[in-house]
């Protein structure tokens, strides 16, 4: 007796998955070829991707090709950073609190100080030497109806850090929030270009300074208080031209998680924010002008952030009514999906 064909049922009915997949492939190949032809002829398929604007107001994409002398004055930037967050409405999330923000004279620190004041906190600004920027930050904080204390000095010096905390407590009566944000950054083409002196400056500013400030603050922090450290996307992903800086940011992330575990029984929370590229004096005081002009365009949003796009994250992590169950995290605010 002759056996019937054992041909698969899918092929008999014309629904073979291989045929389906090849048909889909042919359709896409045709689309790809049409797109190439349009681009070659200057047709409608050649449009350049646009930077993403997802907030209440437009933010710059291109920047002036400017190079600043360190530490970099915000007052001297040709295009001033956007830090006032005019669409952000305060609701008393930090009412009656007292905060210290290191590196608070400009950039992210200034934006954080303004929103902390808008949420009801008095703010002490610890900064190195940019007195003009610091005075402008003070003016903006006081315009929000809160007190502002300016303290100039170097966070590499542990004695200064203790003095800064003591002055703040003396002026405001207590300390509830510490934001470690001061930083030193200088690019290098090779590890061989990083001298011992430069390595020492980067580490002593970026991680020693955070530890000095946290150590000085801890005796004054009570249940419900918080420490927020500024990390970086470079501490998550690394950076070929910011070798020492990236290493300190990775250390800050580890310090954040370790200190969070250490002080959790006291009801003190410790978190970090890891910004991507943000338009602050730090960058034109580092990179050459032609790179500054395209700063941040390699992110998925194809633009750098403005400080006012970072500051709400610092409010969220500082506020007990928002984040009382959050500690030991590194929150990426990077303009890209693949930050972690």
Using brief descriptors, characterize the structure shown.
340 residues; alpha/beta; Rossmann fold; 7 strands; globular
CATH class, please? Alpha Beta
Strand line-up across the major sheet: 3-2-1-4-5-6-7
In the CATH hierarchy, the third-tier topology is known as: Rossmann fold
Distance between the termini: 65 Å
String of helices and strands: HHEHEHEHEHEHHEHHHE
Protein model, in words:
It is a single chain. The protein has 11 helices and 7 strands. By secondary structure, the protein is of the alpha/beta class. It has a 7-stranded parallel beta sheet, sandwiched between helices.
Q: What is this structure's SSE topology?
A:
Elements (H helix, E strand, L loop, with lengths): L8 H4 L4 H24 L57 E5 L4 H12 L3 E6 L3 H13 L4 E5 L5 H15 L4 E4 L15 H22 L8 E5 L2 H5 L5 H21 L5 E7 L13 H4 L18 H8 L1 H4 L6 E4 L7
Parallel strand pairs: 1-2, 1-4, 2-3, 4-5, 5-6, 6-7
Structure summary:
With 340 residues, the protein is of the alpha/beta class. It has 11 helices and 7 strands. A 7-stranded parallel β-sheet has the order 3-2-1-4-5-6-7, with helices on both faces.
